[in-house]
Specification:
The protein is an alpha/beta fold. It folds into two domains: 306 residues, Rossmann fold (3-Layer(aba) Sandwich); 62 residues, no CATH class. The chain is 34% helix and 21% strand. Strands 1, 2, 3, 4, 5, 6, 7, 8, 9, 10, 11, 12 and 13 form a 13-stranded mixed sheet that branches. Helix 1 crosses helix 10 and helix 4 crosses helix 5. The longest helix is centred in the last third of the chain and has 25 residues. It is globular.
Length: 383
């Protein structure tokens, strides 16, 4: 039986319309159910879906045959959205209130674009804080990405992030600082993309019982973990990023400067581009600083530059996520042996309401309700 990644709008529904259960791992040991709480702004909403679905699909391909990974999409209500963003959310996402009774095994919480000087002043803070508490009690593990990691530590431990003097922007060399099942198979030195203005003080993080797994070579926490009722994994970086994500973010930041929406002319992200690409971007930045006009953005050679980039961190990201899914699978198997839930034959009745992707071969098995647009965004990269 091949491994599948199922993108499902309502993981409670079966072909007969019956409810399978209301707690993590409720149906069978052969399904891992992962919620993706996507908090990114409209400009990055679909790209973030694609990045995480591709990474999960590739990681699922490294697991044993016969295991399905079901992904459900969730959204917070108070993230600012345009009309097109709200339409997309209404078509493909469930609200955060649907999360409270969802029988998921794990959760991934993305970052968000900060708008307030303190996270507890963000419009979505109360809902996100509730997610932090809920995940600890109701999942086997949760991944907290970038701003979500900062929010989780502020809510759970009162650790306030600190603004950096300059944006930490680019691909950074990191060192593995601890042996852990989630970093098994990683080399001692890895590379990871970062794109953030804020940082968590390492002494505060370690002092609250978090274990540092990887650290930036030049200083600062990259990845860390804490095991409570749930295994919480935190990334200040972005292993899910695609090869051109930093380039597109740089273009966005440069556009904001040229439109006078920001007073900071962004530095070129380091550690990612080859010399020729870096020289081109440096020249564009110099011209932008000297003549601050939005028309200069037309000279940004986005297509040409994309073709010259590769994502050196992808094997590292794949290993971490494969380890994570393996951890979830082991927990699910142990839970099911202890407390089998209903009839295992019900597993055959579960059908995705949005679509099914066979990650072993990269082929997409379409279902009638899967939109062409979502198929394109959710297509799994070859393993």
């Amino acid at each position: 039986m091949p491994v599948h990644l199922l993108v499902d709008r309502d993981i409670l529904s079966t072909s007969s319309g019956d409810c399978v259960g209301t707690r993590p791992g409720a149906s069978t040991a052969n399904h891992l159910r992962v919620g993706l709480l996507n908090n990114m702004p409209d400009s990055a909403l679909k790209a973030t879906e694609r990045q995480f679905l591709n990474l999960l699909g590739s990681a699922a391909g490294g697991l044993a045959d016969g295991l399905d990974v079901i992904v459900s999409l969730y959204a917070l209500p108070d993230i600012p959205r345009t009309e097109s963003g709200r339409l997309h959310i209404s078509r493909f996402y469930s609200g955060v209130n649907d999360l409270w009774n969802a029988p998921i095994d794990a959760l991934i919480v993305t970052g968000a674009e900060p708008r307030a000087d303190n996270l507890n002043r963000e419009p979505y803070w109360q809902d996100l804080a509730k997610v932090v508490d809920w995940a600890e009690e109701n999942t086997h593990s949760t991944i907290w990405s970038c701003l979500a990691a900062h929010a989780a530590l502020q809510h759970a431990d009162g650790i306030a992030r600190r603004r950096l003097p300059d944006k930490r922007y680019g691909v950074f060399e990191c060192v593995r600082t601890a042996d852990h099942e989630l970093t098994a198979g990683l080399p001692s030195c890895i590379y990871m993309p970062h794109s953030r203005w804020n940082d968590l003080p390492e002494n505060d993080v370690a002092g609250c019982g978090y274990r540092i797994l990887t650290r930036l070579k030049d200083g600062g926490v990259d990845t860390f973990v804490r095991k409570g009722k749930s295994m919480s994994l935190f990334f200040q970086g972005h292993p899910e990023y695609e090869s051109d994500t930093l380039l597109l973010e740089y273009r966005r930041d440069l556009a904001r400067y040229l439109r006078h929406e920001s007073d900071i002319c962004p530095a070129v992200p380091g550690g990612h581009f080859d010399r020729a690409t870096s020289d081109k971007l440096t020249m564009i930045r110099a011209r932008s600083a000297a003549d601050r006009k939005i028309e200069l953005l037309a000279d940004f050679p986005i297509v040409a530059l994309r073709s010259e980039m590769a994502a050196a961190w992808h094997p590292i990201a794949l290993r971490i996520y494969t380890n994570w899914l393996g951890y979830l699978s082991a927990r699910k198997q142990a839970q099911f042996k202890q407390r089998p839930y209903r009839n295992r034959s019900e597993d055959a009745n579960l059908k995705p309401s949005i679509g099914c992707m066979k990650t072993g071969s990269g082929d997409v098995a379409q279902t009638p309700v899967l939109s062409t647009a979502l198929q394109a965004r959710a297509k799994v990269s070859g393993v």
